[in-house]
UniProtKB/TrEMBL annotation:
This is CAAX prenyl protease. Keywords: Endoplasmic reticulum, Hydrolase, Membrane, Metal-binding, Metalloprotease, Protease, Transmembrane, Transmembrane helix, Zinc. Its cofactor is Zn(2+). It holds the Pfam family Peptidase_M48. Belongs to the peptidase M48A family. The lineage of its organism: Eukaryota, Metazoa, Ecdysozoa, Arthropoda, Crustacea. Residues 72-280 form the Peptidase M48 domain. It comes from Darwinula stevensoni. Gene3D superfamilies: Metalloproteases ('zincins'), catalytic domain, Nucleic acid-binding proteins, P-loop containing nucleotide triphosphate hydrolases.
Length: 456
């Protein structure tokens, strides 16, 4: 971190504290003065609402003031993330990389927000130091916190503790010994007296709540072990172990801290304990049975997937939504000579046909469409137009192939019927009378490096 960035952060933090903190503090003092004996209940409610409001704002409005957040662009990491999210039945709200390297070399990943605003954030230092498999394992750990409801549990505990604290403050505020014991005299002016009580209480509270720290650490470490177990079941535990070691090293954390100190103050188990726990966990090699392949034929919930030039396997699709179509790139869990499609990878485009009653998708990731018509038999211009419109909507190149152009008497009529289309789309004439080699030579330039859908 540069000196300039240090002071910029400090100024931003101060301004943000003033903008958010002063209105909240003013409201708290107003409640203490106006709401009678049970003001502390109202103050607790206001604090909870304010905290949730900050949690809602933090991912999209507050955090970006200090750091830059960008979606993960590595396609290998993206495919692994999508496969993992599908296995865990997790709706992705956003997975981002944060430029943490501009402040330190520490690596971290965290879960933030709630509802439709939830997101997972990786430090760029972490992405740069871990392999895609290790990133997947770390993400599985973070998803474990969400799926096991650790965030909600800690939120509930925090809300209840805040209620207890405000109840105690409500009692102490009226006790003369509270002020005299701290060597001060209570103010006679109500607003100042409330501010005085609030300030004194939060100054001395850490001294009397120290015993809560070990309990908080115990529950936090328990959650970390549970999230590790979840990751071991949904990714590869060996990758998580190597990722943990790298993270502890990058963060300059000791691998063997004092056991008493760590049990009191550490929110995360020491590396040795986590690694030992993971080594005794289940196999957790689900992710390594998943392979990427191309759908070369699809029919309902069944598909034929090409995993390599030599390997094609029949697959079924998990779930009924977003059926696979020919041209989809998918993640497949292979079991012997069959597989199960667990994830459809992001599509560049989707080609579909529709009528008044329904819409049906049947090809994806298409570069161009060859729409084949012939001088004979008679072709339907309306169907040609509908195909052209569908191609335009999916941003797919459209080429018209006119076959049997050797039928000289019929060629002018066919070209006349195509006149309005050749103004916008290329027209290639061919004939069934040429050899296969000549046909290949005619179309080789158009087909090279392109995924082409043949219609007509």
């Amino acid at each position: 971190m540069t000196v300039a960035l240090f002071f910029i952060d400090m100024i931003k933090g101060l301004v943000l504290s003033l903008i958010l903190g002063i209105p909240f503090l003013w409201g708290l003092l107003w409640l203490m003065e106006q709401m009678g004996t049970y003001w502390w209940v109202w103050a607790w409610i206001a604090t909870v609402v304010f905290s949730l409001f900050i949690q809602l704002l933090y991912p999209t409005l507050i955090a970006p003031l200090f750091n830059k957040f960008e979606p993960i662009e590595n396609p290998q990491i993206q495919s692994k993330i999508m496969a993992l999210a599908n296995r865990c039945h997790f709706k992705l709200g956003g997975i981002f990389v944060m430029d943490g390297s501009k402040r330190s070399g520490h690596g971290n990943a965290y879960f933030t927000g709630f509802g439709g605003n939830k997101r997972i954030v990786f430090y760029d230092t972490l992405i740069n130091s871990l392999t895609p498999d290790e990133v997947e394992a770390v993400l599985a750990h973070e998803l474990g916190h969400y799926k096991l409801k650790h965030i909600i549990k800690m939120l509930v505990v925090g809300v209840l503790l805040a209620l207890i604290q405000f109840a105690i403050l409500g009692y102490l505020k009226e006790q003369p010994w509270f002020y005299s014991g701290l060597g001060v005299s209570p103010s006679m002016q109500p607003t100042l007296a409330n501010a005085q009580a609030l300030l004194l209480f939060f100054m001395v509270m850490p001294l009397f709540t120290f015993f809560v720290t070990p309990l908080s650490s115990i529950f936090s470490r328990k959650h970390e072990f549970e999230a590790d177990d979840f990751a071991a079941q949904n990714s590869n535990k060996a990758d998580l172990i190597t990722a943990l070691v790298k993270m502890y090293e990058d963060n300059a954390s000791t691998l063997t801290p004092d056991p008493v100190y760590s049990k009191i103050f550490y929110s995360h188990p020491p590396a040795f304990e986590r690694i030992t726990h993971l080594q005794s966990a289940g196999r957790g090699d689900v992710a390594h049975s998943a392979e990427e392949g191309l759908v070369i034929a699809s029919f309902g919930q069944h598909a034929l997937v090409r995993l390599s030039a030599e390997v094609q396997i029949p697959c079924t699709q998990k779930g009924k939504k977003n059926a696979v179509v020919t041209g989809d790139w998918v993640q497949v869990e292979v079991d012997g000579e069959q597989g199960q499609i667990v994830t459809i990878l992001p599509r560049r485009n989707l080609f579909y046909r529709s009528d008044l009653f329904k819409q049906k998708s049947f090809a994806a990731n298409i570069d161009q469409i060859f729409y084949v018509v012939a001088c004979e038999p008679y072709f339907d211009v309306d169907l040609l137009g509908r195909a052209a419109i569908a191609a335009e909507s999916a941003h797919i190149n459209f080429v018209i192939i006119l076959n049997k152009s050797d039928l000289t008497p019929l060629l002018p009529l066919a070209r006349e019927r195509l006149a309005q289309y050749v103004l916008w789309y290329p027209l290639v004439q061919t004939t069934t009378q040429i050899t296969a080699l000549s046909l290949q030579q005619q179309f080789s330039t158009l087909l090279e490096g392109q995924t082409t859908l043949l219609l007509g």
